[in-house]
From TrEMBL:
<dbReference type="GO" id="GO:0009116">
    <property type="term" value="P:nucleoside metabolic process"/>
</dbReference>
<dbReference type="GO" id="GO:0008782">
    <property type="term" value="F:adenosylhomocysteine nucleosidase activity"/>
</dbReference>
<keyword id="KW-0326">Glycosidase</keyword>
<dbReference type="InterPro" id="IPR000845">
    <property type="entry name" value="Nucleoside_phosphorylase_d"/>
</dbReference>
<dbReference type="InterPro" id="IPR010050">
    <property type="entry name" value="MTA_SAH_nuc_hyp"/>
</dbReference>
<feature type="domain" description="Nucleoside phosphorylase">
    <location>
        <begin position="35"/>
        <end position="176"/>
    </location>
</feature>
<dbReference type="Pfam" id="PF01048">
    <property type="entry name" value="PNP_UDP_1"/>
</dbReference>
<dbReference type="InterPro" id="IPR035994">
    <property type="entry name" value="Nucleoside_phosphorylase_sf"/>
</dbReference>
<keyword id="KW-0378">Hydrolase</keyword>
<protein>
    <submittedName>
        <fullName>Adenosylhomocysteine nucleosidase</fullName>
        <ecNumber>3.2.2.9</ecNumber>
    </submittedName>
</protein>
Amino acid sequence: MKFELKRVSGKSILFVMAAEAEYGPFLRSRIDPLMTGVGPVEAAIVMTRALAQLEAQDDLPDMVVSLGSAGSAKLEQTEVYQVTSVSYRDMDASPLGFEKGRTPFLDLPATIEMPLRIPAIPEASLSTGGNVVSGAEAYGRIAADMVDMETFSVLRVCQIYDRPLIGLRGISDGVVELQHISGWTEYLHVIDRKLSYAVDALFTALEDGVFWF
């Protein structure tokens, strides 16, 4: 499990990504992220292991940044958005009387707000789940602006360790129905570049003292 905390203006940051395909040359020149693998289960396992390891070393990060691609039928393709809230679309205990998206017996709302903001980066809500969302009908069942497969899990682990989280997602697909993995990977090189600019904006905000937590 290879990764390195980034230290900026006295703050340590753990960057978290899912897949090597999203980690292009622009991000490689800036960060050495924790790679979790794809999906909420892998993200939870790897993230928990990493933070447990850092806690044992008395080196927990001051902040975690989850970044990568997302799908959306509403937002501009290839643009980067920071996450304002995240929900877990796989959870549905409504037959037992619980609100859809709310985990039974857990004191959390169905949609969890993420209050930290990097200046001048567009904002959007996010839905996390274990399925690849594709097509107008599937997107029509999701209220959030964009979808991914990891951020909710990363957030839950951050909550357990009391670490703040920022989510950054570049829109890779969603305008047309996916037919092949190339429909996801086609614009990842563009997203890599734009995500790197968002990372730069975070570093600049920290250095200038206009971003704090």
